[in-house]
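Lecture notes, unit on binding sites. The following record was shown on slide 14. It pairs a sequence with pyridoxal-5'-phosphate.
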Amino acid sequence: MNQKFIRKIPLSRPEVDEATAEKVSDVLRNPILSMGQQVDSFESEFAEAADARFAVAVNSGTSGLHLAVRLLGLSHGDEAITSPFSFVASANCLLFEGARPVFVDIDPDTFLLKVDQIESAITARTKALIPVHIFGNPVDMKRIQAIARRWEFGVIEDACEALGGKFEGKALGSWGDFGIFGFYPNKQMTCGEGGMVVTDNERFAQRLKSLRNQGRSPSGDGSFVELGYNYRMSEMTAQLGRCQLEQLPSFISSRQQVEERYVSLLSHLEEMRVPPIPKDRSPFVFIVQFKSKELREKVRADLTEKGVQTALYFQPIHLEPFYRGRFHYRPGQFPNAEFAGDTCLALPFYNRLDEVDQKYVAECIEDSLVKHRKKSSISV
Ligand SMILES: Cc1ncc(COP(=O)(O)O)c(C=O)c1O
């Protein structure tokens, strides 16, 4: 049988070395497998790395966002202003408490919510801002803070895609009342699943610890003092997180190299662009943007055929079927987010992606663009 060799390049691939695997399996020999010394150590090491006084480990970024919404006291009828161009969890976290996301469109270059449009979206019900550092791109946190102070809003910084990045020299995640991080396997570091909430407020930190553990009293008397959740982190997860955190600087510098190589391989191509890469970004994914949705779909199909995995980051939240159904959003309401959703494509991106595979990805894109250019000139 003549089977053609097809290279397979995944979208992402976590880096977990042997020493880490051994340390994680060593944890299994201990009597405590959840919420023990590994979790405590992970929290204090993370707080230091993230420039925060306190860090509280949870079982996902989504859980962390939910607890932050809860602690700011948002409930039925309240609103928070956020970006429609994000992963759905940054808006869903409000719905868990009966609050509602109010979207502001994004800047077409940075994909970040337009800070200068926030004030026009404020209503009597607005209680919080949820800036999202999408793709690791830093939101202008000074301006967010200024608005939050003027209106007395809480700030939940969704830094799930931005671990290790900075704005004006200060760590992303450390600007808001809460900074939330996620450790899904495509992130700068992973725990398989997991999340971390950072805050400088001791009272918030204590309540986060109580709420993640079913609302148990911080006094340690075993009583349940409020409605809580099981958002706990296991010891194995925390050990994995500690090993990954130690390697984070080298992970980020590998990702920066991969990013630089893509920029030089792809910047010259016509009918698509490499969006600007902000200073101090910690790279999460690598995005290219095509002139049209039609072209993006054609190139994507060609890449899939050649074994190159890609993803659509993101279909805007307001156009997800659930949001359309519940809030009656329609296309055209946030045009920049919609255009980005129609035209952006995430390419394979991970620490150990090598030059040979990156050149292959770039060649596949170029071949596809040339092929479709020829086709369209024939049909004219
Ligand atoms: C911007 C953003 N917010 C929130 C989350 C949710 O994190 P998790 O998947 O850990 O729940 C993610 C994860 O992909 C994300 O990218």
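Take-home: The chain has two domains: 18-244, 248-379.
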